[in-house]
């Protein structure tokens, strides 16, 4: 199949004793905490808290960028480091304290973007390779104890690709309130086996600015593969849709970075012969297509309207080779409206020796705010359909049903209002539709994972 259209003593004395015990063992308040999380196709670092500078020694003033160094060879004289906040930020640097020497095996990454206050910590080595001090960076002129917050976004990558290790890492320089810096890395989602998701597609209302159609997919394995990516608009009118995107354009970014790999406006402009030879030529000359050999990694597809055009559009990704390295998951962000303007994700499960596959479908909204997405869908719903349009499952808030089963996958949404469906499906074509509860609207994310 080469295209997809379909695309939740006395009681008082006892309480007094318990309260006294809790108060006696309550630890000092954590100072500053940075959490690394996978948000759709991106990794987002979010920091907040306050810092007590007592016990540290002022070192110097300078400028910092948002970066992450889980582990750096001693020869570079710098060990574990993480900085979150905007690029080229003025900082004051303080030395002292103790903490972990690494939080993974990755050699270093620069964030795609950042915002808020610049806060970070790093370790320095002596020429002999011994750690002799740690450096804490805060905004220039920072007043000790003042609240801070920031973010850094690593676009088109995963926690595993960044080379970090799940866990809680704490640097300290005292025992009183706010004299510590904590990095939290939650457990990764499950590592998936060679996927049977062969073709993926997503349909949504394509607007302008942040409200274009933004799709992601991951290619596992070690070998490069040929893919066709299509941006469809005008031909959607043939299935009864109105207000379609008149002239779609495509961009492909990745792997594991924001690097632009390819663009296309009208599919016949380039690669027309090859695209036709594979049988993936769009039916309208204004539609877009990219044929490219891709290395394993995470990729992002952006569908927009030429010259700011808007309307309903469709992104499709096809694997042209039959092997064990098909895309492992899909995720697409777009504006969720009402009626025909909902967010629709379609996928095909091809037989791989198993009678069925376990799929987790998620609808995200509120948690996208952590990635600085404005106007998020506050209460998403998700419904799963088979190829005949029959409803298989529905969910509003993910804890309403299957809470335990979803939690153990490591893929539970971070917000209780977000939705998820865990289902075992036979080979075939399926569609996941994301709507807003009570016809609310906003930016949402649909994700499909195949589990072991």
Explain this structure.
It is a single chain. This protein has 452 residues and is mainly beta. The protein folds into 2 domains: 31-185, no CATH class; 197-451, Jelly Rolls (Sandwich), CATH 2.60.120.380. The chain contains 4 helices and 29 strands. The chain has helices spanning 11-25, 159-162, 272-277, 403-407, and strands at 32-39, 42-50, 57-64, 67-69, 78-84, 89-95, 109-110, 113-116, 119-125, 131-139, 147-154, 167-172, 180-185, 197-206, 213-219, 225-232, 248-253, 260-264, 288-294, 297-305, 311-319, 329-336, 343-349, 357-364, 380-385, 391-395, 419-425, 428-436, 442-451. The strands form 4 sheets. An 8-stranded antiparallel β-sheet has the order 19-16-21-14-23-28-25-26, with no helix packed on it. It has an 8-stranded antiparallel β-sheet with strand order 18-17-20-15-22-29-24-27, with no helix packed on it. Strand 4 (67-69) and strand 5 form a beta hairpin. The radius of gyration is 24 Å and the shape is globular. The two termini are 24 Å apart.
